[in-house]
Amino acid sequence: MSSKTSRHVLSILVEDRFGELARIVGLFSGRGFNIDTIAVNKTLDPRFSRAVLTTRGDDQIIEQIIKQLHKLVRVRKVHHMTDEKHIERELCLVTVRAAAPKAREDLERIINLVGARVIAYSPTAFTVELSAPSKEVENFLELLRPLGIKDLCRSATIALARPGDDKTSNIGENAA
Amino acid sequence: MSSKTSRHVLSILVEDRFGELARIVGLFSGRGFNIDTIAVNKTLDPRFSRAVLTTRGDDQIIEQIIKQLHKLVRVRKVHHMTDEKHIERELCLVTVRAAAPKAREDLERIINLVGARVIAYSPTAFTVELSAPSKEVENFLELLRPLGIKDLCRSATIALARPGDDKTSNIGENAA
Lengths: 176, 176
What we know:
homodimer, alpha+beta, Alpha-Beta Plaits, four-stranded antiparallel beta sheet, 9 strands
């Protein structure tokens, strides 16, 4: 069997108990997989949280990790999103210097072009938010870099089945 | 000494090595703290990742956890954001049923009122994104609930110092 290395996005529905996140994370690090990004938050069902992980690695080993995730008592569902039609987004908050009129003009143009929004500001700096796929967030940061990036926080990638793709929909409300 | 229980938002700058996330998460679960949300992603410096955690618990115990975090070799900085002026946001992706014209009218009104955006759709369902503080995301989901929520994914809360608040700025670029 041939095997290759690719990027993987996993969406994991898990019972909300402390210690469970440590177990999930441990399954990856135990096999030498670096978790590039992880997002954990509530679902509509208070008993469950959802974890979305992105990682890069051998396709066969990922299949083994998924099998082991299924064996964890508190893991209810695991979706390998990269196998299915899905939408990915991350949220980026970034504060840039813009003390001079020319800098503000540049900033205004960039945020209008990409669909970002100002959410806070001081006399010399603006905090901007952008929701986009990770690659676009990185392009956005490259566009802003000449202005001077003062501060940055990126949410992990999150992912959802495309509407109408019955295979993976209903993983929100009807999960339990 | 009196102590009280509150919500805490921690922003942790950490060297990007596998296993480190498991150690950080373990510090919390080992003391019986549930991590409500966690977001981990890259920073501008490829050597470092940032983890933003939200948790609820005893204020004195959180101070102990922060001291222990500082002792981890690969943890560079820990900011207790809730002690400082900061901005919080999370990203919510949600697919709602809207097969009838009346449902689409309701949906359009709600998303215009709150500043959400359609990012994908099928003939019977729409996927909408909203970036807002967690409480507003929960209000948004309550507004959508009567339409029928098919699918949901929430990023963890992320947080940034307010621009102009020198105490906590520069935790992005100048971190290393």
